[in-house]
Amino acid sequence: MKGQLVAILLVAGVLVCFAAYCYAIFDWVTDYQTGVYQREHFEAFYETSALALYTLLGFRFMNKRMNSL
């Protein structure tokens, strides 16, 4: 029973994090198209950096897991 609860919470956490990542990408594209990044250079820098870093870490994690199989 405890193992099932942990698995359900893990899956729920992964889905919430994935939804947040998708929202961040959608927000980035919207801000780029509306020209927000032309006015707010610091916002462009930190949002782009955060998305790039998170994507890079995700690819590294996936690559390590795929190579260990």
Give the topology, please:
Layout: H1 2-34, H2 36-39, H3 41-68
Helix pairs in contact: 1-3
Keywords: Membrane, Transmembrane, Transmembrane helix
Transmembrane segments: 44-62
Task: Provide a descriptive summary of the structure in words.
With 69 residues, this protein is mainly alpha-helical. The protein has a domain at 22-69. It has three helices and no strands. The radius of gyration is 16 Å and the shape is elongated. The model has no long low-confidence stretch (mean pLDDT 93). The chain crosses the membrane at residues 44-62.
Radius of gyration: 16 Å
Contiguous helical run count: 3
pLDDT averaged over residues:
93
Distance between the termini: 28 Å
| Secondary structure tally: strands | 0
Structural class determined from secondary elements: mainly alpha
> What proportion of the residues form beta strands (DSSP E)?
under 5%
Poorly predicted segments: none
Shape: elongated
Order of helices and strands: HHH
Helix content: over 70%
The largest β sheet comes out as: none
Keywords: Membrane, Transmembrane, Transmembrane helix
Task: Produce a short descriptive summary.
The protein is mainly alpha-helical and 69 residues long. It has a domain at 22-69.
Keywords:
single chain, 69 residues, mainly alpha, 3 helices, elongated
